[in-house]
Each structure stands twice: as C-alpha cells, then as structure tokens.
Amino acid sequence: MSSFTADAMTSTAGSRRVVVISGATGFLGLALAAHFQRAGYEVRALARSPGRAATRHPSFTWYRCSLPEALDPRALEGAPTALIHCAFETHFRSEASARATNVEGSRLLLEAARRAGVGRFVFISSMSAHERAESIYGRTKLEVERMLDGGRDLSVRPGLIIGSGGVFLRLATAIAGSRVVPLFYGGRQPIQTIALQDVCAGILAAVERGCVGTLRLGEEESVPLRELYRAIAAWAGVRPLFIPFPGGVGLSWLRVAERLGVRLPLSSENLLGLKHLEECEVRQDLARVGLRPRTMRQSLSDLARPRTPRRPGLTSRLKPTPAEIRELALRETDPAEWPHFQPITRGPLFAVLLLAGVGIAAAPSALVRMLRGAGGQHGA
C-alpha cells in the first residue's frame, strides 16, 4: 500500500461526527478518545470489560469488544465518521495466538466496519511494520496493513510515543531504576519519537482531512537509540552506566530462557524489534496533516519528570524477612539442627561465603535490570 495515495476528501462529508475507538483503555486509545471528545466528537469506546471501563471513564459510551470473538454491533450503528483501531495484543504465547487475536481480530473489525458503512477505517500500525521486520509484532502489523484498501482506509505508523504511559513509560522507569543500561546492537539504531499530544493531533487532522493510504508520524530527524536512552536518563535525573552489549548473544540467552519457561522483562520479540529499527521519511506525511511535531528533547521537557525509585542499600537487601527470622529462631532452639549450620556461622569463612553468595544472588537481578532498560516495542 503506497504512502502517497491521494487523499479522499469527501467520503465522510454527510456523516455525523462520531468516532469509534478500539483499545480505548490503552495508553494511545484513551488519549485519542479524550482528544476527539474535546474536538466535539461523540466517542464510542471499545473495551473487553466495558462496565469496568465506564466506571473509570464515564464521559465515553462503552461497548464490548474482545477480538476475535466478540464485538457489540451497536457501537457501529449510524455509520460513524471513523473507526480507529488501536487494540493490539503484545503479550502472546505463540505466533498462532498473536495472529488469531491481532490479524483475524482486525479482519473481523474491518469487515464489521464495511457492513456498517463506517466512513474511514484507521489502523494504528507502527514504524516496526516493514519488510525487514523479524518480530511477530512487526510482521503482524504489516499483515493487517495489507488487508486495507489504500483508496479508502488509513494506516498510521507513529514513532515511539513519548508520554506518561505505554512503551515509553516502561523504558523510562527501567532506565531510572538501573545502574547499568545495555545498548543492544551498539545502540546505533535510528529511532524517531513523537509526543502523545502530537500523534493525537495528527490522527484527528487525518480523519478530518480524509487522508488515506499510509501516514508516518514522528520527528523529522531520527536520533541514535543510545542518544534517546541518555536523554531519558538526564530527564529522569539519573546517571546510569551505558554498556554496548552484543544483540546476538542477548537474543540467544532470551530464547533459552523462554524455552525453559523463565519470564523476564525483555523478550526475544522486544530485542528483534530493536534490531531492525529504520529511519522513515516523514516530511511529506507531516505536511498532509499540517503537523510540526516536537523533537525528542522538546517532548521530554514538556513531560513531568518521574519520581526516581529509591534503590535499597546492601543492608536492606540482606535484611531477613519475618518468616526467615522465625524459622532461624526455631532452628537455633533445636539442638538437633546445630551441626547443620553452627560450624560455618562463625569466623572469616562465613564472611567469605556470605559475600560470595550475595554476589551470586545479585547477578540475576542485575541482569534483569539491564534487560528491562531496553524492553518494549518501538511504536504504538
């Protein structure tokens, strides 16, 4: 589907200003719902649990949508102006389960929109969706894009969205709480960001201008991934150590861990997404919607700084739990247990063993913190 398909300006001229948003409890979906409502649209929000969502966000009308099984048809009554499809599962057991939810679920939603006469189907894709993508996330995003009709539908590919949620918040939290941040594949990969306010403004303008085809939204110039990490650290007020780390080695370790059933903050999927970051030409697309997005540093400066998590000291980390204290007290009052631990709990040998044990115990948590610093998918 071409990025330069001519805009269709008249397809929604006679329809009411109603927008339907899937994934409306998510980071981008909720922001879009609020943005469109402020612009005067009636917002119909889709969620797996509409009752719970309505309690938290009563200003929108909520309908059930659990892809690929369920969609409340009342959400599409009256030929809404647009359906913005934000819902996309990122935590899946296998490629088959990812395709069932994301690809077949998107197909169900698209077909329902066609039957209901929705004016514009807008799919929130990602800059990770390209021909070289190895991750399931990037490949399935691209597969959904290929379902669309380039003459009537719109696929939006935002860069990394900077705001108080989503992938950015997880990344910033990890960097703020880590002493060491790994730079997988050297951290030289190009990345483009966009502020949450800017991506919402761009999508609103695209709907109102009748844009179709593919729309890439991000800052005009990419920055190296390592520069983004350093900027986030400075914004968060921390100074971690950044260390280049071989991506292939990390990928192998993660795959072994996944086969063993070990859950880590970073998955092989996340790392494959980092591996194939590409710079996108966005100037023409930005002109189509009249958008001049903030730079990465401007987006960070406009965002409230996080509260840096307090790192526990060595004494706090070694402090036994109440259960451990009770167990030790019981063992010390039982003479039969003394031979098992008393000989090594006195003198320098115990101190050496304690320090060695602390080092071994700290290694996995240190690795987890390192991996968490690079976690998350690029894009929406």
Helix and strand topology:
Layout: E1 18-22, H1 27-38, E2 42-47, H2 50-56, E3 61-66, E4 70-71, E5 82-85, H3 95-116, E6 120-124, H4 136-147, E7 154-158, E8 160-162, H5 166-176, E9 180-184, E10 190-191, E11 193-195, H6 196-208, E12 213-217, E13 223-224, H7 225-236, E14 241-245, H8 247-259, H9 268-275, H10 283-289, H11 296-301, H12 314-318, H13 322-332, H14 338-341, H15 348-372
Parallel strand pairs: 1-2, 1-5, 2-3, 5-6, 6-7, 7-12, 8-11, 9-14
Antiparallel strand pairs: 3-4, 10-13
Helix pairs in contact: 1-6, 3-4, 8-9
Please characterize this protein's 3D structure.
There is one protein chain. By secondary structure, the chain is α/β, with parallel strands linked by helices. The chain has a single domain (18-309), classed as NAD(P)-binding Rossmann-like Domain (Rossmann fold, 3-Layer(aba) Sandwich), CATH 3.40.50.720. It is 44% helix and 15% strand. It contains 15 helices and 14 strands. The protein has helices at residues 27-38, 50-56, 95-116, 136-147, 166-176, 196-208, 225-236, 247-259, 268-275, 283-289, 296-301, 314-318, 322-332, 338-341, 348-372; strands at residues 18-22, 42-47, 61-66, 70-71, 82-85, 120-124, 154-158, 160-162, 180-184, 190-191, 193-195, 213-217, 223-224, 241-245. Strands 4-3-2-1-5-6-7-12 form an 8-stranded mixed beta sheet, sandwiched between helices. Strands 8-11 form a two-stranded parallel ribbon. It has a two-stranded parallel ribbon with strand order 9-14. A hairpin with a 3-residue loop joins β3 (61-66) and β4. α1 (27-38) packs across α6. The longest helix has 25 residues, at 348-372. The chain starts with 17 loop residues before the first strand and ends in an 8-residue tail after the last helix. The model is unreliable at 1-15, 312-319, 331-362 and 376-380 (pLDDT under 50).
